[in-house]
Amino acid sequence: MPDNIVLIGFMGSGKTTVGKILAASLGWPFLDTDAMIEEDAGLSIKEIFARYGEQYFRELEQAAVARAAASRRAVIATGGGAVLSGVNVQRLREGNKVVWLQVGLETALQRAGVTGDRPLLQGRRREEVAELIKHREPYYAFADVYVETDGKDAAAVAGEIKEALKSWLASLK
Ligand code: S3P
Description:
Elements: E1 5-8, H1 15-26, E2 30-32, H2 33-41, H3 45-52, H4 54-69, E3 75-77, H5 86-93, E4 97-102, H6 105-113, H7 126-140, E5 145-148, H8 154-164, H9 166-171
Parallel strand pairs: 1-3, 1-4, 2-3, 4-5
Helix pairs in contact: 1-8, 2-4, 3-4, 4-5
The chain binds shikimate-3-phosphate.
């Protein structure tokens, strides 16, 4: 069994920050599919979108998800759109615990909107980002565990995940 913990959720939900803390506290490796894509391509996500477009990024993402999902007892942070692909969802679910980090519009904009490195947020009006969040929600709903992140720091969110997965973690041999 792979027994990974997979973090899904919208941009700015804290998948990478929380994932690093959670992995360190479990003594598990941490994998981030966005970072894997950047390493493979030798380009930032922003550059990949600008030069080759979203479709090509999604192909690289599918390969990175397949590779990440083949690991065992790792914490895996995914890109916010990874779950748009049914193939990715299947790979991320199989034998793993999937955690949805939930985030509201204000927090997502605060955490992710200002950095300028999310092509899908660039030049978008608030209402458009709100629409995108609404559109994405059903894609995250397959998760085993939901954690609300608004107003919480990453360590608190990591603690909540451990608590929610306590009996599953204890059952791992
Ligand atoms: C995306 C989210 C980003 C990154 C890319 C596309 C999305 O990851 O994969 O910019 O479609 O939601 P984060 O959720 O880590 O920002």
